[in-house]
Amino acid sequence: MQTLEALARDARALALGEPVPPSAAEAEVARQLQICNACRYCEGFCAVFPAMTRRLEFPKADVHFLANLCHNCGACLHACQYAPPHEFAVNIPQAMAQVRGQTYQDYAWPPALGALYRRNGLALSVALAGGLALFLALAVALRGSLWSVPGADFYAIFPHNLLVGLFAPVFLFATLALALGVRRFWRDVAPATSGAPLSAPATAEATHAVLRLQYLDGGHGDGCHNEDDAYTLSRRRFHHLTFYGFLLCFAATAVATLSHYLLGLPAPYDLPSVPKLLGAAGGVSLTLGTAGLWRLNLRRHALHGDAAQKPMDRGFIALLFLTATSGLGLWAARGTPAMALLLCLHLGAVMALFATLPYGKFAHGIFRTAALLRHAVEKRQPHPIGLGAD
Ligand code: SF4
Ligand code: SF4
Asked: Where are the transmembrane segments (predicted)?
């Protein structure tokens, strides 16, 4: 589904005072959930099925909520007696993934940039090429060479204020775009999920689910599926390494910024300083996590997820891997003639990552967290139907 098509479709319906019709992907999720609601075999797997039992119909906002609650673990596909080649063709992870891709586009801010999700592989490549070209050109312009720059000081190549001036606007824009996009999603799904406000217990439960990646355990603790119907904890573990590696790298940057401005301690830092410890642990964790996710992604069962989103998934994994390994390589190359080149590679990768955060796979973490929060709120409300239990 294309963003402009979605906007035109919605505008036409609104102008006529009609309910906005579901897209083909949304209608397919609704069709499959009607079958699941009669079957309910998968109730114990994840949060989607208990949430489903609170509904008899599946309008757009409910489908958006449930699609982002799905973790694409594959459990309900491998358990399903109505999965292809059965004529019912129930494939919940695939149908949910297609709607998730649509929601990322439809809720993107600014709306015109939602189109970047459709050509995300190309968008990442262009952003990376642009980031590398920018820093290579700047290094040559400022230092006259990419080789044999003396010393181990990054700021001798790129002054601190120049880096802040380049990165801060891009990072702030990415944060704003993600926040405004998820706010639109929240406003749409909140009425469909009881409309009740966030509470401390609901927030604590959703935070716990996010930090543990709870729904990648298959609901029984043995794990989810990847290439076949065998359970595996590999996806959860490599997701954890990636997730916490990213957070540690972010923490390293935050601590380094505070050290620079509050303590007057500029980079580079050495072991055992806090920024270096956080950055080294984060870099190693991110490298291992993304390498594992890449391997798992290449082997993923053909019926899992949306094949059209594979370039986005793999592009994001590859960019995170490049960011982590170039950062570790830069550490190893400090004070050598290769330092300037590696610094350009690392900064170009980080710039491409920041620039594409709101329009790529990173969005799934933000939208899924919002869906988990709404689920934790909704399940605390009286059951509207009374035919199923949470
Ligand atoms: S995915 Fe299949 S087995 Fe599971 S609840 Fe739906 S119809 Fe039943
Ligand atoms: S794929 Fe996994 S997370 Fe998604 S609905 Fe099925 S069981 Fe739940």
From this structure: 122-142, 162-182, 241-262, 274-294, 315-333, 339-359
Which of 68, 70, 375 to probe ligand 2 with, by most ligand atoms within 8 A of CB? 70
Give 48's Cβ-side CA count (13 Å radius). Answer: 32
321 lines ligand 2 (CB under 6 A): no
For residue 232, list its beta bridge partners: 224
How far is it, in rounded angstroms, from Cα 130 to Cα 20? 39
3-state secondary structure at position 46: coil
Give, using CA atoms, the residue closest to atom 6 of ligand 1. 36
Ligand 2 geometric centre to CA of 250 (Å): 30
The residue ranges of the chain whose pLDDT is under 70 are 1-19, 148-150, 152, 386-390
Give me the pLDDT at residue 14, please.
Answer: 63
Please state the atom number of ligand 2 nearest to the C-alpha of residue 42.
Answer: 7
Q: Nearest-CA neighbor of 372 among 50, 36, 32?
A: 50
250-278: per-residue pLDDT in tens? 999 999 999 988 988 888 888 889 999 99
Distances in whole angstroms, Cα of residue 7 to Cα of each of 15, 21, 55, 192: 12, 12, 27, 21
Ligand 1 atom with the shortest distance to the CA of 92: 1
Distance 93 CA to ligand 1 centre (A): 11
Q: Which residue blocks in 300-362 are alpha helix, DSSP H?
A: 310-333, 339-356
CB burial readout 290-310, b (16+ within 10 A) else e = bbbbbebbeebeeebbbeebe
Q: Which atom of ligand 1 is nearest to the CA of 39?
A: 8
Give tens-digit pLDDT for 44-53: 899 999 999 9
The rounded Cα 23 to chain-centroid distance in angstroms is 23
Q: So what's the pLDDT on residue 219?
A: 79
In terms of pTM, does the model score above 0.70? yes
> Nearest-5° angle of CA 325, CA 329, CA 335?
160
Backbone angles phi, psi at 90, to 5 degrees: -80, 120
Return the pLDDT at 148: 66
The closest-lying atom of ligand 1 relative to the alpha carbon of residue 33 is 6
